[in-house]
Amino acid sequence: MTFVPRRSFRAFAALFALCAGLLLAGCSGSDSAGTSSTSTTADASTASSKPQVSTILDKQAQTVLDQFLQYPTGSQAQVSSAVLTFAPGASTGLHKHDAPLYVYVLEGTITVTYEGGIVKNYSEGSAILEAVGTAHNGENKTDKPVKLLVVNIGAEGVANTVTL
Fold first, then answer.
1. Domain for residue 66, yes or no?
2. Whether residues 82 and 143 fall in one domain
3. Contact (CB, 8 A) for 155 and 114
4. pLDDT band at residue 48, thresholds of 50, 70 and 90?
5. According to the model, what pLDDT value does residue 46 have?
6. What average pLDDT does this structure show over 39-64?
7. Which residues pair with 30 in a beta bridge?
8. Under a CB-based contact definition with an 8 Å cutoff, are residues 107 and 86 in contact?
């Protein structure tokens, strides 16, 4: 058993609270006046305060095309994430996902066209579970950048994105 000095534990707890506050502040939406809907970083860093929770997506069981969510099986689970930035006019190109994919729109509006001609627009603050196994293309049709937080919920040996 490793001894952790009380002072180090307190520093770790304060750092954890600060990081949680920054994460919540970075992922929170704004109201129409442009003010943040979460507490300030200073409030979140005190040991006695608790972070505010703004639920974005809760117990979603289906993708945007009403497919029931299924995780890949047979190999080690893997989660990876990235922030994608689309300049005006940029697109993903035709592709599909072989594993569940969570997307949160941080800025702007992305237009996604799915096979069969289904078109959906996702604006800032939208949280979605992307279609699995269905060809689609995402495009920034606006004059402002689009930023997406993308979280792949996959497995070893399963492609997160397959270019078509």
1. no
2. yes
3. no
4. low
5. 56
6. 78
7. 36
8. no
